[in-house]
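Example 3.
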Amino acid sequence: MSGTDKRNFALAAMALAMAALLPLFDTGYWLALGVSLAMYGVLATSWAMFSGPTHYISLATAAFFGTGMYIVGGGVEILPFPVLVVIAAVAGAALAVLVGLTTMRISGVYFVIFTLGLAELIRQVVTWVQTTMGSSSGLYVLTEITESMIYWQLLLLLAVVYLVGWRINRSRLGLALRVIGNDETVAAHVGINTAKAKVILFVISGTVASVTGALLAPRWTYVEPTIAFSPMISFQVVIMALLGGVHRLWGPLCGVIPFMLLWDLISAQFPNQTTLLLGVAFLLIVYLIPNGVVGLIESRLKRRSSGNG
Amino acid sequence: MLEVRDVTKSFSGLVAVDGLSFDLAAGQIMGLIGPNGSGKTTVMNLLSGELKANTGQIHLGNREISKLPAHAIARQGLARTFQIVRILPAMTVLENVAVGGVFGHARYWGPGLETRALEMLARVGIRHLSQTPATALTYIDQKRMELARALISDPEVLLLDEWLAGLNPTELTDGISLIGELRTEGRTIIIVEHVMDAIRSLCDHCVVMNSGRKIAEGAPAVVLSDRAVISAYLGDDDA
């Protein structure tokens, strides 16, 4: 491990420790915002681990997120919560393998549409199952888990995601993904099993999203397909990750924080125009800062250092 | 080393390669020539796994590779350059070369990888450009980089698809002598080329294609004066 790595580790650990203190000061508005930040931080970072290097835009986040949430919703009265989280992880991974193996051969817009359709398909199936077999369209999730605990669990998950991402970036797998993102034909011809590399990352990303859904289930005492499988989750994750920048592990988090703060303000002021404003935000980001906040900062720094030297 | 048997490839009715067979012995440099559209690049793509043959077999050493995907063929020891040079634009020259030595036939990682990649860059004469972004290279240097990326995997068979195309006369001389050095190293190479001087000076053996078929085979001097070959390139007397 190099000196820079040690420094970054120390900084990350300090930031995490400080973030973990939040529930001691406020358990109302700020904690609620903190949970949202942590949730989207995890989702956007794990999304970017797959979509950043490969340039495959996945809109399947809600499919995995909802699956995890429904596993907790359906099993919370039968099994202990930690067991359900593990089941959610396994189910998310299995779903990602299935989807990955069928979709990695399609690329571009077809992949985007397929992943969007997947979330919708699962939502419809869940709704159908609930209305035909059960009596209501939702599930009650009544637990002893407080919002502070959810927050800490999410922070822990975020730390795990960062460690995994850091490890991958330094591995052959990380290099393989960069080559795939540069030129998939070259990747195959230097001996990279491109389908396998993409599926592995898609599985990691899907597993994390499913676990996130599972951890958040207790936050809403009543879980419905429209909440759990909301396409808004998938879109917001993409926007935040792109806003932050997907070519660095810590990029998406730099998008999550300003976006959530702004989003909170917008949805309070203009509750009826949120979707419209989301679309506008997406256009502005893609046109004005294609490499995200991180890309913007890096090019400024580079310009300054080259200007001086 | 490489054995091609009755390979046919058609694209929705158009037969691009029609029952092609040839053998390539270890240490041999073979020229694959023919007029435009005769199917040479399709043959290269069939060998490297970019395309799959409809019928026929290709063996590399003792293993059949005609059913394998491109990445598995690369691991068996076949490396190539592309007709239109393919660089990894977001990477440095050193990284571009290094990726050839991580996943393929030879596998390096860590400090050994960098040393080996620098050796390859020195081998093709652009070691001083190792930290340059790949996009900043001139055309010939990009071609050199691509060659280094193929060589780092220590391939059993190397495919050069019009590697000399688009070079000016000085660069051409340099390019020919570079391939000549590979020949003295004992590499096994297939060259697709339109530059006949290169074919004459480099190749031991030539396969001439026209409309997907092999029309002649043998030593370059003999093949290039063959009547069928001349008429394929220049047309028949009465045409």
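Residues 29-54 of chain A form the longest helix (26 residues). The two ends of chain A are 29 Å apart (CA to CA).
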